[in-house]
Amino acid sequence: MSAAHSSTPWPVAPKKPSSKQFHGLTRTDDYEWLREKDNPEVIAYIEAENAYTKEQTDHLADLRTQIFEEIKARTLETDLSVPTRSRGYWYYGRSFEGKQYGASCRVKVADPDDWTPPTPADVTHDQPALPGEEVLLDLDALAEGHDFFSLGGSSVSPSTTLLAYATDVAGDERYTVRVKDLTTGELLSDELTNVHGGATWDRDSANLYYTTADESWRADKIWRHRLGTTQEEDELVFHETDDRFWVGVGRTKSDRFMFIGTAAKITAEYRFLDLDDPDAGWQVFAAREEGVEYSVEHAIIAGEDVFLVTHNASGPDFEIATAPTAPTPRSEWRPLVPHTQGVRLEDVDAFAGHLVVHQRSEGLTQLRILELGENGVADDYLVKFDDELYTIGSGSNPSFETPVVRLGYTTMRTPASVYDYDVRSRELTLLKQAPVLGGYDRDDYEEHRLWATAEDGVRVPISIVAKKGLHEQGPIPVLLYAYGSYEASMDPYFSIARLSLLDRGIGFAIAHIRGGGEMGRAWYDDGKMLKKQNTFSDYIACARHLAESGWSTPSKIIAEGGSAGGLLMGAVANQAPDAVGAIVAAVPFVDALTTMLDATLPLTVTEYDEWGNPEADRETYDYMSSYDPYTNVAAQHYPPILAETSINDTRVLYVEPAKWVAKLRATAENPGDVLLKTEMAAGHGGVSGRYKAWEDRAFSLAWMIDQVTAS
């Protein structure tokens, strides 16, 4: 793509220099004025960029329509999810042809001893419903009249007669919670505003616990709301005053305890309320220790109530220990699943007859079952699958008494599949595989694990999928996706939309770079703070490996990443513009140094353990300055760049990509090859509604295809 598509000049943001002093150094910023969201000149600039992007991509209108129709044709639009059992009901979601959002539903359990989820009598029917269906929420009705709609947390009360649900109609993740009486269908008078996420019921279905955020949008307070009262009367249960920590609240599957968790990036602390003895009040389980992360779950093992503590005090890849259901210092935690180097223990779920451990090893997810007997753990084993690449995880398992484990499984060529694993019989039953219409055959595609070698000799895994045999005929275009921050793992997954690339001869790969969690805690530690450069050099090594191994060529590699992965895209653009042929940066964190220098901005202080504090530490300031995408924009030729953002994003503010693009326009040798697309009614997750999301993805995919197929 080049500026040849344009009949008018690209937008140019005026320079309005502003300067600040840090560590005796003067930092001048020409485009910080774009942060003034209410300034008509700012909105005019963003709208001018949108107009330029539209003009530059008008020639792709037919291709966008074609891709949208492909996604739509491959998707079973009227469908229902596999029902999940809880408290005498089966709960599931419905989707309907022509509707954006769908519905939440339930039916009563017919046989208490039968854990086999019900299925429609006629799955070919236009509206496959289950007998006795009760619609809990009609999401399309809730979304009516709004340009944006998102359902946050929704929770049925333990009494099964009330539903608390949260909605956001702006995209700023500030939710409003309402309560619906499921016996009458009427809304109660209760209304909770500016809630962070959703709400949690207490065991008696009389109170809701919820979280609110401070001015920097850090979840800092837990409240208790008694039904029938106003929000002004709510009780403040807990306030976290350390700006590095955020809070959350939940109830255990066993219904015995409520937990308030407070955590920073590398430190955690839990409080619990014993619902069998509420007069004892909230108690701290184990006081926070800097660098000690832990989480708590309630289990019953050998007839004894215990807390399961997943923690890193015994080693970086975590251990699962037991402790009394009382305040317990770390010295009294007893190993149940000991720390094993290279096996990262991520979480544990407790049920009446078994425990489910989520772990990863050799870059792949694993699901581990610990069967419980009269004397404790009776057996310990993995649920096995045979594919070279896969992602496995437990699905919705809300019932403490369940004898089965609902799990999800996918590969890059295997659609998302839902299984029930019967712990008693050890039988694995496929309940549903996401349908792909139009005759999809997984054997038409191949997936592999490749290994690149980073600058420091570390081997970096790559997962790749493509049309079978295609790359053997010569290099193919490849979309190389990555994230690489917060210990978040980008595991192999299937995508219907991706087929529009694969079937056009374009491969898809994930670079599992340091900063993520794919290879254990050390993998994360080696890609954060003063080792962040490893994230960028790992990605560049992966791109070069795809070219050197014959899978692709630099000009035909499309780089894509979002949020912190957008920072990666900006760094790659500056450091190795010759390694890729085009870049898509979604809601990109490209002005990271400016953000981390301003403690008043959303999430900045809570991010210090990820990036460092450049305001307080000169070494961190210099290090971030060395890689920050916005700071390092240079007078060089850049690959074509598509930056995508949302005006109401509260996590990565729209101003970051706006400033980045403005500076690229003023500095790059090819300023016309940069596009900025800003959604004017969306947040960090982009547009809402599945058809809008398909259109949005079709826009990006069409632009990518154009980059690697244009002559």
Automatic annotation (TrEMBL):
<keyword id="KW-0720">Serine protease</keyword>
<dbReference type="Pfam" id="PF02897">
    <property type="entry name" value="Peptidase_S9_N"/>
</dbReference>
<dbReference type="InterPro" id="IPR002470">
    <property type="entry name" value="Peptidase_S9A"/>
</dbReference>
<feature type="domain" description="Peptidase S9 prolyl oligopeptidase catalytic">
    <location>
        <begin position="493"/>
        <end position="707"/>
    </location>
</feature>
<dbReference type="GO" id="GO:0006508">
    <property type="term" value="P:proteolysis"/>
</dbReference>
<dbReference type="InterPro" id="IPR023302">
    <property type="entry name" value="Pept_S9A_N"/>
</dbReference>
<keyword id="KW-0378">Hydrolase</keyword>
<dbReference type="InterPro" id="IPR029058">
    <property type="entry name" value="AB_hydrolase_fold"/>
</dbReference>
<feature type="domain" description="Peptidase S9A N-terminal">
    <location>
        <begin position="11"/>
        <end position="433"/>
    </location>
</feature>
<dbReference type="InterPro" id="IPR051543">
    <property type="entry name" value="Serine_Peptidase_S9A"/>
</dbReference>
<protein>
    <submittedName>
        <fullName>Oligopeptidase B</fullName>
    </submittedName>
</protein>
<dbReference type="GO" id="GO:0004252">
    <property type="term" value="F:serine-type endopeptidase activity"/>
</dbReference>
<dbReference type="Pfam" id="PF00326">
    <property type="entry name" value="Peptidase_S9"/>
</dbReference>
<keyword id="KW-0645">Protease</keyword>
<feature type="region of interest" description="Disordered">
    <location>
        <begin position="1"/>
        <end position="23"/>
    </location>
</feature>
<dbReference type="InterPro" id="IPR001375">
    <property type="entry name" value="Peptidase_S9_cat"/>
</dbReference>
<comment type="similarity">
    <text>Belongs to the peptidase S9A family.</text>
</comment>
